[in-house]
């Protein structure tokens, strides 16, 4: 998403907005949705993690998708991928920041793969 936003900002002669790292299409036999994913695999500590920045990235990504892919639904969960050591801290931090509603989910890369890519029906609630 960052590359798409950078190109759009250049084309529109404006500053670059924050955006999630990527989105992927997840499907089952009934529904196609885009899943927004932020990768935080290099984080060693959550002391610099800012909840409002994650919300800004989500809003920026949703803005891109509304303009470029407005006929495709966006999944109601936004995934933030952490390494195994940080994930439990991230879940605790999320509970402290009520602004990170239940729509955000901290996961490891293996959990992301298991939940969304190793199933027949990949869209989950």
Written description of the protein model:
- The chain has 125 residues and is of the alpha/beta class.
- The protein has one domain.
- Helix content is 40%, strand content 21%.
- The protein contains 4 helices and 5 strands, in the order αββαββαβα.
- It has helices spanning 2-11, 51-68, 84-96, 109-117, and strands spanning 22-27, 32-40, 73-74, 78-82, 104-107.
- Strands 1, 2, 3, 4 and 5 form a 5-stranded mixed beta sheet that branches.
- Helix 2 (51-68) links the parallel strand 2 (32-40) and strand 3.
- The protein is globular and about 40 Å long.
- The model has no long low-confidence stretch (mean pLDDT 83).
Q: Percent helix among the residues?
A: 40-55%
- Principal-axes geometry comes out as globular
* Biggest sheet descriptor: 5 strands, mixed
Total number of strands: 5
How many domains? The number is 1
Count of runs of 4 or more consecutive helical residues: 4
Summarize the structure.
This protein is an alpha/beta fold and 125 residues long.
Keywords:
alpha/beta; 40% helix; five-stranded mixed sheet; 4 helices; 125 residues; 5 strands
Please write out the topology.
Blueprint: H1 2-11, E1 22-27, E2 32-40, H2 51-68, E3 73-74, E4 78-82, H3 84-96, E5 104-107, H4 109-117
Parallel strand pairs: 2-3, 2-4, 4-5
Antiparallel strand pairs: 1-2
């Amino acid at each position: 998403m960052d590359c798409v936003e950078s190109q759009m900002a250049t084309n529109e002669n404006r500053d670059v907005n924050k955006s999630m790292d990527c989105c992927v299409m997840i499907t089952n036999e009934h529904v196609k949705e885009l899943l927004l994913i932020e990768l935080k695999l290099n984080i060693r500590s959550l002391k610099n993690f800012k909840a409002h920045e994650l919300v800004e990235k989500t809003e920026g990504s949703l803005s891109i998708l509304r303009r470029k892919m407005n006929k495709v639904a966006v999944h109601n969960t936004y995934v933030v991928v952490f390494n195994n050591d940080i994930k439990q801290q991230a879940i605790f931090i999320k509970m402290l920041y009520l602004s990170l509603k239940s729509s955000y989910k901290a996961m490891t890369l293996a959990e992301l793969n298991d939940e969304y890519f190793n199933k027949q029906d990949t869209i989950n609630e």
